[in-house]
Amino acid sequence: MHEHYQNPLITRYASEEMKQNFSEKKKFTTWRKLWVALAEGEKELGLNITQEQIDELKAHVYDINYDVAQKREREVRHDVMAHVYAYGQQCPKAKPIIHLGATSAYVGDNADIIIYRDALKIIKKKLINAMDILARFALKYKDLPTLGFTHFQPAQLVTVGKRASLWLQDLLLDYQDLEYRLSNMKLLGVKGTTGTQASFMELFNNDHEKVKKLDYIVAKKMGFEEVYPVSGQTYTRKLDSQIMGVLNGIAQSAHKFSNDIRLLQHLKEIEEPFEEKQIGSSAMAYKRNPMRSERMASLSRLVITLSLNPDLTAAEQWFERTLDDSANRRISIPEAFLAVDAILTLYINIAGGLVVNEKVIAKHIEEELPFMATEAILMEGVKNGGDRQELHERIRRYSMEAASRVKSGLSNNLLEKIKSDPSFRVDDIDSLISPEKFIGRAPEQVEEFIEKMVKPVLEKNRDLLGVNAIVEV
Predict the structure, then answer these.
(1) Catalytic residue among 23, 281, 423, 431
(2) Superfamily for 360-438?
(3) Is 281 considered catalytic here?
(4) Where do the structural domains in the chain lie, given as residue ranges?
(5) Dihedral through CA 39, CA 323, CA 245, CA 132, nearest 10?
(6) Which of the residues 4, 151, 183, 282 is marked catalytic?
(7) What secondary structure letter does DSSP report for 437?
(8) pLDDT digits (tens, 9 = 90+) for 263-273
(9) Which residues pair with 145 in a beta bridge?
(10) How far apart are CA 50 and CA 43, in angstroms?
């Protein structure tokens, strides 16, 4: 047992991949890679930096002397300068040129952008897999009629696959947002203390072209095509807000999906996976609580509320730099990524193991369809010579009586009443009330949507398919 608080996102929910992405190791090795890229760029542009110094820096990117850095930070109260010092202890020849011309934001902000980019790629992979599973589910059940619900009251029939296509469309919109943000992310680059690059102008004797080129050399070495053309000391915190908007959107979609599954599980129409030895309730052994969907909803609410933090931070920044963003960013943004990672693991797990109880679905249709079929029966009766007003009144009366029976716990006898009334002049009422006649274009809508909108996305990202979503607890 631990004596101190342990974040449940780490101990219970997030994947190993996402936890490693936000680890101290990833952060500080990225800092060192940025220092290597800076030194290489400065050397390439003519500064007095030797290959021997570069090689020394490269040799110590991963074997970080954390103890030295931690001891130094307690003395100087500055994490970046503590790590510059620690790196210099391991690289005595390169020590004079580490961090040359740079400010703390050079490593801090650029590393954050790199880490967020890599985190979005993990999210993208899981989002694609959730979409793939839902697409296959929607196609499998595109023809299966089920009660539609408006206001959670029985409404016109839809199909199980059509309803799944609504969940899928939400994820598609999230994917489009994510892809836009990911493809438009830029590195801060090498901008200096207030974003003017003044220190680098000094290093390169006021050579504007070399200073501009250094920005792009560093970006290219770190896997980016572009840098933000203007900045203060930090990149605009609007980027954090935009990234969190993507995570917020996924949380919204997942929460809606989880709500629908929880309601369907109450109806016993569709259920989330339930393992052989799983306990649904500590007191009521027969229960099958939708605990994974409930966890998904719970984590989604966390993300939706966390997303307010970067919005406020972006609004609160003063001029070229203020440090009231730091503590907030290092908590709220990683936690949102860890939570969305866990949410999508749950999504893949639930969607991949949904149990569709077709007989229960059919029973619920049978209970409600007679009411919905009365318009078709009325039209057929009029077509065969019946009086519309008279038939309408008879249907109204029979419907009221049938509804009263249903509310008393008895069966719906509306069709029997209509069948026994010769006024309707309809020989085969049963043929008019086949559920398949009441689903409109639902199957075609599913096919067209997936073929046109979803399959191209899945095909484009087929190399990301195949995530094994294990729910640990």
Answers:
(1) 281
(2) Fumarase/aspartase (C-terminal domain) (1.10.40.30)
(3) yes
(4) 360-438
(5) 40
(6) 151
(7) G
(8) 999 999 999 98
(9) 159
(10) 7
